[in-house]
Amino acid sequence: MKDLVIVFPGQGSQFAGMGKKWFDGHESVRDRFAQASDIVGYSLADLCFTAPPAEVTRTRYAQVSLLVLSYAMYEVMTEGRKIPVSSMTGHSLGEITALAAAGALSFEDAVRLVKVRGEAMESCVAEGGTGMIAAVRMPVTDVEKCVEDFNSAGHTVQVANYNAETQTVLSGTVDDLKGMTAHLEDRGAKVVKLNVAGAFHSTFMANALPEYTKALDAVEFAEPAVPVYSNVTGEVYESPEAIREALAVQLTSPVRWSAIVSSLVERKAAVWIEVGPKQVLKKMLTGAVGSGEVYSLDEEPEQVHAVLDQLVELKKREPGLVGLFLGAAAATRNRNFDAEEYDEGVVASYRKLQELAKLDPEALTDEQKQTALDLLLTIMRTKRVPEDEQLDRVESILRRTGDVGLRTIAGALAT
User: Fold this and answer.
1) Which residues are in the Malonyl-CoA:ACP transacylase (MAT) domain (predicted)?
2) Which of 201, 253, 263, 296 is catalytic?
3) Of 7, 253, 316, 395, which sits most exposed with the smallest number of CB within 10 A?
């Protein structure tokens, strides 16, 4: 089975007229636009389709518009079928879209949160005098060394995005960035001035934190239905509270996109689909994911649906959660030669798993899935399988089936 990763874009992918074909072609998209418009107090359709182009590029409007459109596109893509998503993530703002799509927060809460986020960040931008540049064709370690050397003279340039090994985005004052550009170009880098309104993902956004953290505190976060990777750590979120904390930190910390991509490549992610306007992330991912296939839903909808149809069919041929548990139970080496313990902990539990395996995999309740995992853990503990091996096997199965809601039970391995 090919691991499927869904990625959502951040600010910079917006443009006047974005999403018009999705809005015109799908009632569900129109419904989400209307629902979000009621929350934010203005018409997103008018903003995206008829307002002057400069309006949709404003931070307060761009972020909400991108969230709503990307989320609505994801709903269209998944309508009427359960696609086998292995992981989700997003770039900057797109991380919130990923969390909403994974069920970690409601669509309504996501809209309210991003409205505050965009407005608070724009208020920092209004203070003026800051911006961003991208250093390309230079290894990230060399860029970091250049920043360190340049800042030793009293400047405050900061790394904002680790996008790729040879693409690093920097934030700072306009004057500092002019000097930084010359410093980098003298050492062989190509520097691109970014068309953004401020110094995002840096301490220049600190004044946005009070309002934004207040909005975060009002959101009820839940365990994502699939693993979601954090921009702050580059790793999978482990708890709802970790989500709240990292989203606050994200405003003033660099986006560790390259770390996320590296982690997913190591996990053999084979298919990547960008869900949102344009194909900014597709371009960034192409060449960075080895032999992985990369698609843009906005630019290649027919190809994306064909790929998803194939993945859904492949998923149907695979053993379900309980089948994989049975395989893991049989494959682990026994280190317990007490016959009575073995009969009670292994044989009896295995037979109960076999009974669960007779049920329709698609109809299993969460309680039945948890029972199946408890039985597998009982078998492995009785066989005295090392705890790290137990964890590796369970985590691998849960990633494969998408049942990451059972991770809380996996956390009880040592008990």
Assistant:
1) 7-310
2) 201
3) 316
